[in-house]
Amino acid sequence: MSRKSDSEIKDTLLLKISERSAKLGIIGMGYVGIPLAVAAGNSGFPVLGFDILKGRISQLNACQSPIKHIPNSALEKLKVSGFEVTDDFTRAAECDALIICVPTPLDKTREPDLSFVESTMDTLRAHLRPGQLLALESTTWPGTTQEVLKPYIQSVGLDVGTEFFLVYSPEREDPGNAKFSTHTIPKVLGGDTENCREVGVALYEAFITKVVPVSSTKAAEMTKLLENIQRSVNIGLMNEMKVVADAMDLDIFEIIDAAATKPFGFTAYYPGPGIGGHCIPIDPFYLTWKAREFGLHTRFIELAGEINAAMPSYAVNKLVRVLSERGKALKGAKVLVLGIAYKRDIDDVRESPSVLVMELLRNWGADLSYSDPYVQTFPVMREHSFDLRSVPLSPETLAQQDAVLLLTDHTDFDYEMIAAHASLLIDTRGVYRRLGITVPTA
């Protein structure tokens, strides 16, 4: 049987995409992969999930969602159309498109750790074939797709751009944001070649409302970093302003709200106990690392990172000061942390500043507990460990505490009840000012 020509390979894949018969393999069934599977499956594509965690595989195949904003019913709907999750990576050969959504953390020296991406490619390499599209969605430094992924494809004799298609399209998930979903958030996409970009755009346009093509995979990688660096820098500025305002006995939240009445030239960002999630605390350092290759030192980005990283210590030091004014040491004090997710109304604790605050409190010798309606048991984490369960909030529980530290402003908290029964309450999110409730502080 004669081999298909290059144009036939591309046209065949484009036809499968247009007919929704192209099978999508999504590698990494977590906070990015699961919503992506739902969006693609709801648009009619057959979806096969891949993961290495046995528990996660069993959970998803039983249609039990591990993510709060993805209901079990969404997985049940996919199951009807054949959705399943496996750790058998030989089945990657079945897939017409493979989308990588694995973690890209930093190591202990704040350098990029691409081990999950590289191990994925090590596993996939033997199962790549002509007529496939490979997309990377994990956040990384500009050049990763071209310099790291492309050689894997070439090593098995596949020509990128003619018989195999390679793109980068950064994830833009925002858990807990009811206004946007995977389907409605515009998708930036860069291809290794024009053919790659054409195929990538065709795929994502089939289940994403708007696709934004850019000139290269490197441009798409840089776009993702810019988005999160901008937030990091602006939040860093507000965190620094918070420290200055506190020293001047000013309410930074009042000042931000007043400044936000200006109808042009000002965007409101708010301070807090630090920054969290899988993007903002990590992404800026991918660029600072890559910039060193060009002899550049990204001082502005690194300064924002330093300020944000110092905020957990600032919150704890404020608690130490307020307790000491009441004649109480932090060591042995009963401290209740409200909220350990990295932002309101989600169950994700990745890079959460609350966890860093908890570690500092433990180091000070505090008698520590937490309450979070979305995180009932402190999860297993690579670098943090607490043998704690969420305690129910009640007047009795609150009255037993020497201090209550509000770190994540979940809407499910009964803020009036908390203020009425806590003897000392430190609000790091400005919730009580927003609600007009007086809090018991020194």
Give a structural overview:
- With 442 residues, the protein is of the alpha/beta class.
- It folds into two domains: 6-215, Rossmann fold (3-Layer(aba) Sandwich); 230-435, Rossmann fold, CATH 3.40.50.
- Helix content is 40%, strand content 12%.
- The chain is built from 15 helices and twelve strands.
- It has helices at residues 6-18, 33-42, 54-61, 72-80, 115-124, 144-155, 194-205, 217-247, 252-259, 283-292, 299-325, 353-364, 395-399, 415-421, 431-435; strands at residues 24-27, 47-50, 84-86, 97-100, 132-136, 164-168, 187-191, 211-214, 334-338, 367-371, 403-406, 425-427.
- The strands form two sheets. The chain has an eight-stranded mixed β-sheet with strand order 3-2-1-4-5-6-7-8, sandwiched between helices. The protein has a four-stranded parallel β-sheet with strand order 10-9-11-12, with helices on one face.
- Helix 1 runs parallel beside helix 7 (194-205) and helix 11 crosses helix 12.
- The longest helix is centred in the middle third of the chain and has 31 residues, at 217-247.
- 45% of the residues are buried.
Structural class: alpha/beta
What integer is the average pLDDT? 94
CATH fold-level name of the largest domain: Rossmann fold
Helix content: 40-55%
CATH architecture of the largest domain: 3-Layer(aba) Sandwich
Q: How does the overall form come out from the CA principal axes?
A: elongated
Number of strands: 12
Q: What is the count of DSSP helices, taking H or I runs of 4+ residues? A: 15
Report low-confidence residues grouped into runs of 5 or more: none
Adjacency order of strands in the biggest sheet: 3-2-1-4-5-6-7-8
